[in-house]
Amino acid sequence: MNPTSPLSELTAEWKNARMLYPLYAALAHEFVIELPPCPDLEAGVDAPPRESIEQARQWFQDVDQRIQIHQLRQFLQTTTLTSDEGLRMLLLHHLHKAEKTDCDRDKVDFLLVQYFSHCAPSRLEEADVDMEYVAQVLEPVLGKVDLTLPAQLVLLEQYIQAANQAPSLNDLLTGGILDKGRKLKTSAGEAYFVPAAMIAFTRFSFLMRRVFFRLMHQDLNAIMDGLRELESLGVSHLDCRRAQFSADEPTVRLRMICQSWKVMFHAEYSSGQPLRMLVDLRNVVDTALKKNRAGKPKAVKAQAAAASAGFTVSASDAPEFEVAPAAPGLDQDFSNPQSSKDDENA
Predict the structure, then answer these.
(1) How many domains does the chain have?
(2) Which of 251, 226, 223, 225 is nearest to 237 (CA)?
(3) Tens digit of pLDDT for each residue in 130-145?
(4) How far is CA 62 from CA 2, 33, 52, 130, 181, in A?
(5) Do residues 113 and 332 lie in contact, with contact meaning Cβ atoms separated by under 8 Å?
(6) DSSP run (H or E) holding 238
(7) 183 pLDDT exceeds 90?
(8) Domain containing residue 289
(9) Which of 161, 187, 163 has its CA nearest to residue 175?
């Protein structure tokens, strides 16, 4: 029988549905989403009647409308159920929709970066992440692609260069780079789904995510080093109201919070409120360091500097947090407090 016959297409559709069903069921369970029944999918029937395939098609359509982008991000970044093949099937499921909403675009945008991150080498050098390489990795999903870009998407390269020059997380968040990328994506409309455009946005989001994590870890390291130095100078409490903590916050508790933030940002780094708190806490610690260093004798300051550098007996020579060259498995929404993990997509 011709492999493109309707019967063959229905068989392939059912096979894909059976592969996706456990992912959807697990996601619904995690977020307590009440799903309508789909008996033949639940039972794993091998050769269902046509009516069951049509029922499954409607089931996925209904469930897709109930799953929010931040739920999809959080689930896929924390579950062990996904694989390259599972992500590919999920991507194709959304790409093959006849009509796509803004929510579908955001899901596709996230899934493309997630898939690329899963498939690309973990030690991938940034210079290697060019359009040709991204197209090669995404070929199982998008096929062979003409990489000719619309003129307005050339701006993405400028945004990447500007992000690479940002000296701090605060500069990245307030410099407007993320908003520009988001607006460009939104303004693309249906043209977003042109394969060359999807490749360009995937590259942009992946590289922006790397910048984000580098700066985030830089701030966390600076805060931890600063807290150790302040403690060596005899400071045990800080006024952290500007960072939405108390007026007499123990430095020990602040260090514990920073440790928990590292874990949280790996699971849901798009949360806008904690990011703002992180930036403000670094400003608090930097201000306290300047104030306390100014009033201490040179010998005490030298001892404090050695402590912050990790040269005391109790301190470790290893950095508080290590920054990996790549951060696979993390989403690309950096600022929207309604999102969950590595904003709209960046």
Answers:
(1) 1
(2) 251
(3) 999 999 999 999 999 9
(4) 31, 12, 15, 37, 30
(5) yes
(6) strand 237-238
(7) yes
(8) 215-308
(9) 163
**Is residue 186 a part of any domain in this protein?**
no
| 243 assigned to some structural domain | yes
Would you list the DSSP string of 120-141?
A: S-TT--GGG--HHHHHHHHHHH
Would 82 be classed as within a structural domain?
Answer: no
73 and 331 Cβ atoms separated by less than 8 Å: yes
* Residue 248 φ/ψ, nearest 5 degrees: -140, 60
Tokens of 205: 């989001």
For residue 151, what is the DSSP state? G
Flag whether pLDDT at 12 surpasses 50.
yes
Contact criterion met (CB below 8 Å) for 201 and 185: yes
Sequence-ordered alpha helix ranges (H) in the chain = 6-30, 39-43, 50-66, 69-78, 84-95, 102-119, 131-142, 155-164, 169-174, 177-187, 195-232, 251-268, 272-294, 298-308
Do you know the residue count of the chain?
Answer: 346
What are the tokens at 17?
């549905």
Judged on CB neighbours under 10 Å (0-12, 13-18, 19+), 256 is exposed
Closest CA to 200 of 346, 335, 87: 346
What DSSP assignment string belongs to 247-281?
Answer: TTEEHHHHHHHHHHHHHHHHHHTT-HHHHHHHHHH
- Assess if residue 271 is contained within a domain: yes
CA distances from 133 to 122, 130, 145, 155, 298 (A): 14, 5, 12, 19, 53
CA distances from 315 to 58, 199, 225 (A): 59, 45, 10
Give the whole-angstrom CA distance, residue 54 versus residue 7: 13
Residues 218-248: pLDDT tens digits?
Answer: 999 999 999 999 999 999 999 999 999 999 9
How far is 210 from 323, CA to CA, in rounded Å? 10
Token pair of 142 as six digits: 């998008």
